[in-house]
Every structure is written in C-alpha cells, then in structure tokens.
Amino acid sequence: xxIYLDASALVKRYSDESGAEEMARRFAPGVKPFxxxxxxxxxxxxxxxxxxxxxxxxxxxxxxxxxxxQDWASSFSVLEVDTTTMSALPDLVSRFPLKASDAVHxxxxxxxxxxxxxxxxxxxxxxxxxxxxxxxxxxxxxxxxGLVIFNPESPRA
Length: 157
Hints:
Layout: E1 2-5, H1 7-10, H2 20-26, E2 34-36, H3 38-52, H4 58-74, E3 77-79, H5 89-95, H6 100-115, E4 129-132, H7 136-144, E5 148-150
Parallel strand pairs: 1-4, 2-3, 4-5
Helix pairs in contact: 3-4
C-alpha cells in the first residue's frame, strides 16, 4: 500500500493534538510516504500558528520545525505541483466543493494511484493508495474518488 499524506494529517506527527498518537503509530519506519510540495508551506504555517496561539513555547517550536525539516529532506517522496499531478483538478473542483489546497492534494493522490496503476478493479487488487487526512469533508470526497482513507482522529477499529 502506498501512502499519501495530506497536511491536515501530517501536522499531527509534530504536535500534541487529537490523532497524534495514531499518526505516530501508523507512520512506520522504512515507509516513504508521498505528499505534495504544497505540504511544506501548509505544515510550516500550521506549526507557526500553534506557536503564535500559545500551543508551544519557542524551544518546542524550533525543535519541531527542525524535526519536520529533517523529515522533509529524507522521509517523504514529494510530488511537485505541476500540470501532470494536477490533471484531475479541473474535474474535481467542478464535481465537489473543494478548497484549492484540498483539490491540489486530492489531485496529486489520484495521479499517484493512476500513475502506478493502483486501486479498485486493477490487477493485483489489494494494492492501493491510502490517503491520510484529518479533514472529514476532504476524506469523504477522497473516498468517493476511490481512495482508501485513514483519518488519525478516527482510526478504524
């Protein structure tokens, strides 16, 4: 199974909030999940907001930023935001009420699935892209698009 990380789920790896423990449990060593280059900005912005709002002190903020930067350099397969990975975007925003950033992530995950020939009805059957997302509305749309969903805030039993 390939993993695609939406920023809403990934930020839980670096902060103490609902779903953080489940995210840590599922973030297996040796697995190099995919994400969009947009995630770099989204995670940094989310962490900075938590710091500004008093959710962490300066030392924690600097340590978490360093940890994320190290992971970004070595632990993720980053998909560039370009016309190739965004090929599904026009159809997605026509069919579903998506925010632009959500459409970028969903389009990249669909491109990943299609590029590697994964998903329902494909030979090999049990291979798919698991979309890690903590946004329930985006998770619903992603499921309608045939992605396997993992929400760290509501893990499967």
